[in-house]
Design brief:
By secondary structure, the chain is α+β, with helices and mostly antiparallel strands. It has 12 helices and 14 strands. Strand 8 and strand 9 form a beta hairpin. Helix 3 packs antiparallel against helix 4. The chain is globular.
Length: 308
């Protein structure tokens, strides 16, 4: 076949044309094979490890998967509510009292601190304490709150100091610095505490409660301190040493809690002291008017301590 007329004769032979067709076919087939091979290698490589590390790995090398050996915390089932009256005094002088509730149904602490001179049916709790003892205060508190109080715990301040130190100091965020001294009361006291997070000594703890109740009239802050006491001192470390601590407690306190009562509370103590349990707290502040809790405040407090 002639191309470029008048420029000389250039021809494509018939034989070369057939060879060109064969070359095109072979090249096309080669491309298809290469593409298929690449796809095969990519897919296979995604499913298998062709790394040098895998190639040279000894046949007897065992791979152990990490197994989560942690067990889910299993707690005993607890229920009910227990009201406990705490009284702290100095000989026949009542410094303050507080009603606690251990609410097993909701795993919670509730507390309401009371001034020593709180009036109940025209009688002061401090007078009942001095003349008839802690059981008389317990009976008056049952009348005041309209609910059963299961136990009372009465501690002289020096015994409170001992137990407090044994169970461990309480950390508390003091909202403002306190510098106070009172020598004109039956049991004089002074308290000095800086603002901010403080690790309170026993004397500071009692001094702050007395100051908040009798000077500032802030029962809510007194409650906060008492809630911190329960939340921090009932802990795993003390639970592990509970037999020794209970022995020290019954020796130091005037109480109607028996060894049988303590034994029956074992499951509740385990739950409340466990660090994985989020124990709730409820602050039931008392509002006073001339030494008497106001009717509205009293009604609200009663709602916290009902046992039904």
């Amino acid at each position: 076949m002639r191309i470029f007329k008048n420029r000389g004769d250039i021809f494509f032979s018939k034989t070369n044309k057939e060879k060109s067709s064969e070359q095109k076919f072979l090249i096309t087939a080669l491309v298809v094979i290469v593409v298929f091979t690449l796809i095969f290698v990519i897919v296979t490589g995604a499913r298998n490890d062709f790394s040098a590390k895998e190639f040279f790995k000894p046949d007897d090398l065992n791979v152990t998967e990490e197994v989560d050996t942690s067990e889910e915390l299993v707690l005993p089932q607890i229920s009910g509510k227990s009201n406990i009256l705490l009284l702290v005094g100095d000989e026949d002088n009542l410094l303050f009292t507080a009603l606690y509730q251990a609410d097993m149904d909701n795993v919670a602490y509730k507390v309401s601190a009371l001034k020593a001179d709180t009036a109940v049916e025209n009688q002061k709790l401090s007078t009942l304490f001095a003349k008839q003892g802690p059981q008389a205060v317990k009976s008056a508190a049952e009348v005041l709150f309209g609910t059963e109080i299961d136990f009372y715990i009465s501690l002289d301040s020096d015994k409170f100091y001992e137990l407090y130190s044994t169970f461990g100091e309480v950390d508390y965020p003091v909202i403002s610095e306190v510098r106070y001294k009172n020598n004109d009361v039956a049991v004089p006291y002074s308290v000095r505490v800086k603002e901010g997070e403080q690790s309170l000594k026993a004397s500071q703890f009692i001094g702050l409660i007395r100051y908040y109740l009798d000077v500032e009239g802030n029962t809510s802050l007194a409650n906060d301190l008492l809630l911190s006491l329960a939340s921090q001192q009932i802990n795993e470390e003390n639970y592990a040493d509970r037999e020794t601590l209970f022995s020290k407690f019954v020796t130091a306190a005037d109480t109607d809690i028996t060894v049988r009562d303590y034994s029956l509370s074992a499951d509740a103590l385990f739950v409340f002291s466990n660090s994985q349990v989020g124990v709730k707290v409820y602050n039931a502040p008392a509002v006073y008017s001339s030494g008497t809790i106001t009717p509205d405040s009293l009604k609200e407090i009663k709602g916290y301590f009902v046992k039904e």
